[in-house]
Write a structure and sequence with these properties.
Layout: E1 2-10, E2 15-22, E3 28-32, E4 38-39, E5 54-57, E6 61-63, E7 72-75, E8 81-85, H1 88-98, E9 99-100, H2 103-107, E10 112-114, E11 117-120, E12 129-132, E13 139-142, E14 148-151, E15 156-158, H3 174-185, E16 190-196, E17 210-219
Parallel strand pairs: 3-7, 9-12
Antiparallel strand pairs: 1-2, 1-5, 2-3, 2-4, 5-8, 6-7, 10-11, 11-17, 12-16, 13-14, 14-15, 16-17
């Protein structure tokens, strides 16, 4: 299976999450492992196959999806191979083909509003990944806790874009975040890769939920952040 990577997020230090578009079916695919998580060794700058805009041969895969994470496929990292980096204009065209203008169209009626966040219940929903082309320019900022966030017209979401953090996965790259914010404010078109987290329970909550986040920020003037 060949995928074009358009989701690449920070997890806990040393770990990442990756997803892309199957170049044959145009469906999102998330390569996962049966009993462990993907490590940063798999990033291109560490000698691995994965980076935003890379076309990767995952090798043999086994479907492992279940609502809402219907995109999951088991793979063997040792057999995954970087093939090439997509052309920036072609990459932007693909994002446009995948993008919807609202969250409900991406995630369906099971997407609930909780204050300014969005959640999906356990084993609910029909997707956990998508691309959003917001009608109004979003506002990207670093909050008082040092987390990168995006304010949309109808939601305020955390941003897990690996590129907006230092390699410790904790420290925000404030200069880069400022640059991205100013380009959006200047009218540069933006498409957001969005996704649901694995289920977890907030301290004050009564149940585990999948929480919506922004996985990556894509800008038309430099789609691959080169």
């Amino acid at each position: 299976m060949h995928i074009l990577v358009n989701h690449l997020t920070r997890m806990q230090p040393g770990y990442i999450c990756v997803a892309g578009v199957d170049v044959n079916t145009m469906s999102h695919v998330r390569p996962v492992l049966p009993r462990s998580r993907l490590t940063t060794d798999l990033l291109r700058y560490n000698g691995g196959p994965f980076s935003i805009g890379s076309v990767v041969d995952l090798g043999p895969t086994v479907y492992a999806g279940g609502a809402p994470e219907i995109e999951d496929h088991y793979f063997d990292p040792a057999k995954a191979t970087w093939l090439f980096d997509d052309d920036p204009e072609d990459y932007w065209e693909l994002l446009n083909q995948m993008a919807y203008e609202n969250l409900a169209a991406l995630f369906g009626p099971d997407l609930d509003q909780r204050d300014r966040s969005r959640t999906v219940g356990i084993r609910e929903g029909h997707a956990s990944l998508g691309c959003l082309a917001p009608k109004q320019p979003p506002s990207l900022y670093v909050d008082q806790r040092g987390a990168v966030r995006i304010a949309l017209e109808t939601a305020n979401l955390s941003v897990a874009d690996l590129r907006l953090y230092e390699r410790d996965h904790k420290t925000p790259r404030r200069d880069l975040a400022t640059s991205v914010r100013r380009r959006i404010q200047a009218g540069v078109e933006v498409i957001l890769s969005v996704g649901l987290t694995r289920p977890w329970r907030k301290q004050e909550d009564s149940a585990e939920r999948h929480w919506l986040q922004v996985n990556n920020v894509h800008l038309q003037d430099d789609p691959l952040w080169k």
